[in-house]
Predict the structure.
Amino acid sequence: MDFENQMSINYYANAKNILSESIDNNIKNIFLVGRGANGKTTLKQELHDRLTLNNYNIIPHFYFKTENSFTEFLNDVSKKILETPIDPFHKFNITIPNDAVVIDMNHIVF
């Protein structure tokens, strides 16, 4: 196995641990960030039962066009996990609140 593949496997395992801890800690908003082919969908599938058991709304690919739409999303009281190609907190220059976690998967390549 080459170095890049091993690093991607390690990064993926780390992302899985962060997601698992986020579920355990009842984090309200979980963002899986990455352009594509980096394991976001696989990660959601692997932990689907835990996400469902813990009442997370599982949202497929999503892109926030406006800061207002993103703020409304954050203010919604339901727990949710979603995939997005870019970090909306960075895009709109908003501080990540305590009830949100961003898992950046851009450095993973499969």
The chain is about 45% helix and 20% strand. Strands lie at 29-33, 56-59, 79-84, 100-104. Residues 3-104 form one domain. The chain has one domain: 3-104.
